Amino acid sequence: METVRLGRRGPLVSRFCLGLLPVSRLQSNLPYREAVRLVEEALEAGVIFFDTAELYDTYRLVREALRPPAVVATKAYAYTYEGMRTSLERALRETRRERIDIFLLHEQESRLTLAGHAEALRCLVEAREEGLVGAVGVSTHAPEVVAAAAEMEEVDVIHPLLNHRGLGLLGGSLEEMLAAVEKAARAGKGVYAMKVLGGGHLAGTPAEAAEAFAFVRGLGHVHAVAIGCRSREELLVDIALLEGREPPADVAATLAGRRRRLFIETWCDGCGRCVEVCRYGALAVEGDGDMEDGAKVRVDHQRCVLCGYCAAACPGFHIKVV
Question: What is the pTM of this model?
Fold first, then answer.
């Protein structure tokens, strides 16, 4: 598999990055042994780049299935120096690694958000100087964050949402995101894209998926692409499409007709916490105004990007991506 340097100060990575969100408790909650086997399949296929986050709770999988030279990127929401140091120490402890290859500020929403995370960023920069972190970065769905991070000397790597329909972008257009990504790459930042398939919305047919991958494959300023997979079949098809090859027909056939959606259990009590954390306005509480008797949550599937973060906010574990 093709490998590439992730910007001026980032590590050498495979162009295909396996995202671990879909196997986590936020989405499929794949049985542990199946998740290990999926990671092993990826390694056998030449994948050496893996993306996770503190929120995903997959550090055990990283610890037991991955060894250097496999490159691991993780993220945390912490915004204080002390909070980020705690997140870093947890990552080092639970992965049993001496260094986290890439550590990112998770899901930055705007220039103001970046400014509000200045102390957390300072913590990561100092950890990089200590040798505890290899590269420092940000993940975001917002073009303005990519453009701002491109100008920040502290930032080595940027992990932006990017797909040919602009699904899931916050506060900007696809054209603005493409311009920001080019600016970042020219500034020497490593860029690895996410949500190339729009959370599954752009993979309804083989032709749609091929179009989505062809778009990102043609972007010279994107070094790698993080793709979330839940099975060997998804992994093999996605690798083939990213490399511009025709997927094995028998493997592709097993995925025909599969669609992902957000599922809310019938015993949801409508507390509304998921609505509060959804950045896309995809969730709303039905029922009376005080969110009590008979209240449930309604999903606008056109807005939902299937990130699964609402599941983390649900106190009763009523939400899943299936």
Answer: 0.88
